[in-house]
Fold each of these.
Amino acid sequence: MSDAVILQKQRWVEVKKLQEKNKRIATFISFLLIPLSGLITDIYIPSLPHMAADLQQREGAIQLTLTLFLVSYGLAQFITGSLIDSFGRFRLTLVSLAVFIISNFVIIYTRQIEVIYAMRIVQGITTGFIVVAKRAFFVDVYEGDERKHYLSLMSIVWSSAPVIAPFIGGYLQQYFNWQANFYVLAIYGSMMLLLEWVFSGETVPVFRSFKWRVIIRDYQYMLSNRRFLYGLFICGLCYGTTMIFGLAGAFIIEHQMHYSPVVAGYAALVMGLAWMSGGFLGKATLHKPFLPKLRLSNAVQLLITLVMIGSVGILQNIYTLIVFAFLIHACVGFIFNNYFAYCLGRFPQMAGLASGLAGGTNFILTAVASYAVVGTLHPGSQMVLGWGYLAMGVLSFFILQFLLKHQAKQQ
């Protein structure tokens, strides 16, 4: 790397480094920003049917706003990880928060679905910078068992957004309108921008060269680790399982079962609690053998899904729908917590790149798999939703079998 590039990077971070006295509050701010991606996707889920009616768009066109965010968020992370490793975390986070705030106001005041699509892509890119930087923060600042603790806790905190967001969104839709969701996102972003600017700072330990040859070499190195590679697919399928409910749940509950947006919000809240429960269980079993516990959770997931499908002829209502979905989401939350923490901590010397690759692949797979299942099956009932869950669970089963077979060969 030339002296000019090194000097440029030094000037980039000379503005402000994280002070030791602010380490605790900066950690708290990072935990507040980690759920941002889930907040953006889940807060307006109860409003999806009303957005379709208000903007005079079909259901698929409104669901695409969610998918475009997931795809852009996933794709962005493939490059944001390299950028924050090369140019630092702090300023890129501040700029991204500012652009994110503006994009929400554009969505609020437009009636053009194409403009909303564009702003959701912008939000995916800016959120990619913010969340990747904050995931890398824990690898930068902490080491050893403390790092493992925070990475596992991070996954649980991230799962708080699916708990809180739809609950808030249901009431915002009930008493205001769908635009209120994006006002809340803008206010939240503004608060985070202020806190980040005042209390946070640069944490990158060693700047890496931003060269495509080096980036590709690092990607090849990480993807050569089979457990890491398969973990990316497992995490995407697990989160994709929950996103099937996110895409279809509100339409089933509000259109087919004729409940209010508040009820749809409560249902999504329960799904978030399921994911969080799986995360807590995953953290509590960190000491257990890695692959066997994931295989057990996947087997329970498949069994519950089969019962969900088979019981339709006996009993089918909103309560059975929520109970079965809760148990399935808890299983995939358990698998995700274990595997995502492993992927993030596997390559501490390139934390930003590993965070971007893991997060990017996860959300690309989540977006493609969930939208493909919903677009193909059009879940409108407990049975069809169950078939969607089954497809995701079976794919996870085969990947885990490959991993177990590979592990047996190495022993």
Note: Residues 1-9 have pLDDT under 50 and may be disordered.
Amino acid sequence: MVMPGYGSGAQPSVWQPGTLQELLNIREQIEGTRCYVAGGTLLRTQWEAALKGSPEHLVSLACIPEMSGISIQGDEIVIGAMTRLRECATDPLLSRFPILHQAILAIAAPSVRNLATIGGNIASGIGDTLPALLVYDAELHWLTCRGMETQHVALWLENGRNSKLNADDVLISIHIPSRNFAVNLTSSVPERYTCESKQSIPERVHQISFYRKLGRREAFTASLVTVAFHGEINPDDGRWTQIAIAAGGGSGIAARLTETEHWLQSEKADASQAAGLAAQVTAEFVSYTDAFATEIYRKQSAGNMLGAGLWQAFHS
């Protein structure tokens, strides 16, 4: 049953749809400013800091079962947008995608991850999971005024950069394909492998994956820079068969570093590429300056983290 919640005037009305159909009905029924709430952890900090005004309507997504859970559908991992970060961090299926797993563990404190959702982290446009999702070529499924629509995360971020997003769209699920990666979704026991290491996997492909985050202090802080790297090497000729690199962090919009990917793939995979990788990333990564760090500091940090990660992977 769809029921408005408390208050009027200064207090927003609260709506709690139980199905996607009820959510659609509410969207058509209510007028005025509205805000869709997942875990609400980021929204609370924005309201307290007066960065965002209170809407006339709050629409909670917590009671819609179709938006929660992690499952295998064909050759994809599907994550409901309302899945708590705590659940994402402990789910064995997501351990097959170590970059995303590491990114989730780096978000805030455990108490925050108990409430915060992966969908809220993504929908913020600046979440720490976004570089990992870019590297894994994830797709986002949205409920829009035109019905269900799918967008690659890279295109969605580009639209955000160009102010082409519709705030009334609701993220329903995240789809991560395994077909583009040496990942087996059919085995009963997931292969557990760590980031920042080179692994031999059944398809005779060596894999290097790592995620790194630089914050203003050691733990539980907003990021200054986040980077993600995934590469696969043919052991027969030692050349890269696949590379994906992304960087973001802070209030900046994450992006794939395609020029750096092409440069790295043009040479034989080796630890000697680390210094050149750092320089290429510094030149390509577009960031910003704020009260905490300059753009050049963020650019150099991204380059150094990626270069160091590649060097360590070859020497581990």
Note: The domain at 197-315 is CATH 3.30.390.50 (Enolase-like; domain 1).
